[in-house]
Amino acid sequence: MYAVIESGGKQYKVEKGTSLLVDRLAVKEGEKVTLRPVMFRDQEVIAGAKELEKVKVEATVTEHLRGKKIKVFKYKPKKGYRRRAGHRSELTKLEVTELKLLSRKPAAAKEEKPVEDKAAAAPEKPAAAKKPAAKKEAADKKPAAKKEPAKKPAAKKAASKKPAAKAKKPAAKKPAKKPAAKKDSDDGS
Q1: How far apart are CA 135 and CA 133, in angstroms?
Q2: Residue 119 phi/psi, 5° resolution?
Q3: 125-127-129-133 Cα dihedral, nearest 10 degrees
Q4: Measuring CA to CA, which residue among 113, 92, 107, 74 is closest to residue 31?
Q5: Torsions phi, psi of 94, nearest 5?
Q6: Do residues 72 and 86 touch, judged by C-beta distance below 8 A?
Q7: Rounded distance, CA 6 to CA 186, Å?
């Protein structure tokens, strides 16, 4: 039984007890992390999105470390161009602790729904009270708003004429004179 998981844009093949290095995760050492499966294989291969929701891949963060130093040197011969750089990747070491296929979706998705319902129910009452007041204010401002746009386009037209008056036309270029053909003065003298 194994799974292919995705972490940091890279895919890794894992089994229970596997340790792997992935790009740095924002999790403290010793905490558990749920990894996103891309494929699962037990007796059959599971790769569909709906079936993969039932797959559980869990790992423990063993440690945070830095990778091997990578040296970069750019050089162009005969040009005096030399650049030296390098970096060390920030990594997280994971130990896969659990890998199994559940009979149904995990309960974590169900817990989120009641929280959303409570948050959605509270803002509805104040929003309903504010809407009629906003409509009354908008009704009072409508006549004033109609007069202002009539003045603004006239100002824009005047502003657009000024830059055109300042622009100078480029002077017409005269064609270059062709050099006169030279006569051969070599008479053999």
Answers
A1: 5
A2: -65, -35
A3: 180
A4: 92
A5: -115, 145
A6: yes
A7: 86
Q: Among residues 91, 89, 113, 99, which one has the least CA distance to residue 37?
A: 99
Burial class for 100, CB neighbours closer than 10 Å (0-12, 13-18, 19+): middle
Q: Is 80 left (phi over 0), alpha (psi -120 to 50) or beta?
A: left
The pair of three-digit structure tokens given for residue 171, joined into one six-digit string: 């002077």
Token pair of 103, please? Answer: 């009979």
Radius of gyration of the chain (CA): 37
Q: The tokens of 105 are what?
A: 């979706």
Does pTM top 0.90 for this prediction? no
User: What would the pLDDT profile of 76-123 be if each residue is shown by its tens digit?
Assistant: 999 999 999 999 999 999 999 999 888 877 665 444 444 444 444 445
Residue given tokens 């817990």 in the structure block = 111
List of residues 6+ apart from 54 with CB closer than 8 A: 101, 102, 103, 104, 105
